[in-house]
Structure formats: structure tokens, C-alpha cells
Amino acid sequence: MAETVRCPTCRKPVDAVRERRTKDFPFCSERCRLVDLYKWLSGAYVVPGEPAAVPEEPGE
Ligand SMILES: [Zn+2]
To answer: What is the pLDDT of residues 20-33, one digit of tens each?
Structure first.
């Protein structure tokens, strides 16, 4: 049974069964993983003291 998640960066469907074994999961690629990392880091500098706003995934 296919299990699919959305890449947090580009929203592309990611095959969870296959990709969860990679270091990039749940991202579709290393590029998207780094984009998210930089976004998180820059956000942490822009709003010190504020909890990072993590967009909630829409429920199942
Ligand atoms: Zn992606």
C-alpha cells in the first residue's frame, strides 16, 4: 500500500515507504531539506525569543 506525504518545502508528494530510508525524508530532495533548514535558521534570527511558527499540516 502506497503511503504518501507532502514535502514540507515544495508540497510535492513523497513516497514515504521508499523515501523514509533516506536522510532527506520527509523532504523530496536534499535541496528542499536545505531550503527548509535555512528558512528555519533565518526565522530564528529575525524573531528572537518568539517560538518558530511551524505551519500545521492539514489533518488527514
Ligand atoms: Zn520538495
So the answer is: 888 999 999 999 99
Residue 28 contacts residue 12 (beta carbons within 8 Å): yes
Q: Which residues surround ligand 1, an ion (CB under 5 A)?
A: 7, 9-10, 12, 28, 32
The pTM score is 0.61
Is 4-46 a CATH 3.30.50.10 domain?
yes
High-pLDDT (> 90) share of the chain, % = 48
Q: How far is the CA of 25 from the centre of ligand 1 (A)?
A: 10
How far is 19 from 45, CA to CA, in rounded Å?
31
